[in-house]
Amino acid sequence: MLYSEKVKEILRGIAGREPLSFETDAPLAPYSSFKIGGPASFVVFPETVKALTEVLEALSELPVRTLVFGNASNVLFCDDGIDGVVIFTQKMRGLSLLDDGRIFAEAGVGLTSLSQFAQKCGFCGLEFACGIPGNVGGGVFMNAGAYEHSLSEVISAVDYWDADNKRTVSADISELTFGYRTSCFQDGGRIILGAYFKLEKAADPEKVKALMNDHLRTRNEKQPLEYPSAGSVFKRYPGYYTSKLIDEAGLKGASVGGAQVSEKHAGFIVNRGGATALDVMMLIKLIQDKIYLLHGIHIECEVRYIV
Ligand SMILES: Cc1cc2nc3c(=O)[nH]c(=O)nc-3n(C[C@H](O)[C@H](O)[C@H](O)COP(=O)(O)OP(=O)(O)OC[C@H]3O[C@@H](n4cnc5c(N)ncnc54)[C@H](O)[C@@H]3O)c2cc1C
To answer: Which residues form ligand 1's pocket by a CB distance below 6 Å?
Structure first.
């Protein structure tokens, strides 16, 4: 990678004063829920917002590709890897109940931990997020959701790094746009540092806990959690349940190399061992073509292919 020595010097400098670790030429597969992906020139783990913004600011001076991920549970890293710096926020786990009654969670807080923390604080409204394996940053970016609810319903504000102006911004929900599995953060240029959640007080916190446990149980029963995957591969098509379409098309169990349409849940592609990103992409294309042939509709990928 061009500027490799310069990047190393910058990262060493920041690691000397802030909690941050990094690796060079590190395979991305172990960090992704799909267990797929070639090496990145640098893999960086900041543990605080300050460490992350220092890295982003310093690297912005160089012509170096910089990408930020949370738990990499909604991405497919390409087989050739990334010629650049890949930052994972998963060690940024600051989580607190603020004096104004809101919850603040740093980008790396797991959605299940957030949901459990909210329940312990006596709130309801985040039960749906219990069991989603992503982090707050990735969750806000994707507007993650389940059971007809999504994060945008409970977000009150988001702190982000404005890459163009090199500054931290705190934006109220009214300044942000969200849709079904989309957010304004997908337009680029903004790195989520943390989010504020405004929740209702629960009438019965034990009922909230029971519902969360129920969601976890249902996920265990219905999802192929025994294999690496990135969850549901396709977005819902208006009026259709994509997994039902795939099932009815007879594609359960269809495979390319080590990638297979889950026999347990047709919306998932699982890595049965040794799957490559190319295997997954070919299987995705096969599914999309068959659904188009049968129904004349194009089902869109929710999982983001990172090349
Ligand atoms: C078994 C399983 C079940 C799942 N169930 C659900 C479900 O019920 N509902 C649902 O919505 N999703 C589900 N998912 C998908 C996934 O967990 C969610 O989309 C989650 O929100 C992704 O979070 P992440 O931290 O893993 O994001 P990543 O996969 O790391 O990143 C996703 C995208 O967000 C960007 N991003 C991440 N962090 C930041 C940041 N701090 N600033 C800017 N951009 C950022 C990345 O660049 C990438 O483009 C499931 C996945 C799996 C494996």
So the answer is: 33, 67-75, 89, 107, 132-135, 137-139, 141-142, 144-146, 185, 191-192, 223, 225, 229-231, 304
Q: Sorting pLDDT into bands at 50, 70 and 90, what band is 2?
A: confident
Torsion angle of the four alpha carbons 301, 247, 254, 250, in this order, in degrees rounded to the nearest 10: -130
Q: Ligand 1, from 43, 53, 74: best to mutate by most atoms within 8 Å of Cβ?
A: 74
Q: Is the pLDDT of residue 272 over 90?
A: yes
- What separation in Å is there between the alpha carbon of 181 and the centre of ligand 1? 10
Residue type, 253: G
Q: Give the domains, in start order, of the chain with CATH numbers.
A: 4-88 (3.30.43.10), 95-206 (3.30.465.10), 227-306 (3.90.78.10)
Report field, pTM of the whole predicted structure over 0.85:
yes
**Closest of 194, 188, 207 to residue 160, by C-alpha:** 194
Q: Where does the pLDDT of residue 113 fall: very low under 50, low under 70, confident under 90, or very high at 90 and above?
A: very high
CA of 6 relative to ligand 1 center, distance in Å: 31
Distance (Å, whole) CA 83 – CA 120: 42
From the CB of residue 199, how many other CB atoms can be counted at a distance below 10 Å? 19
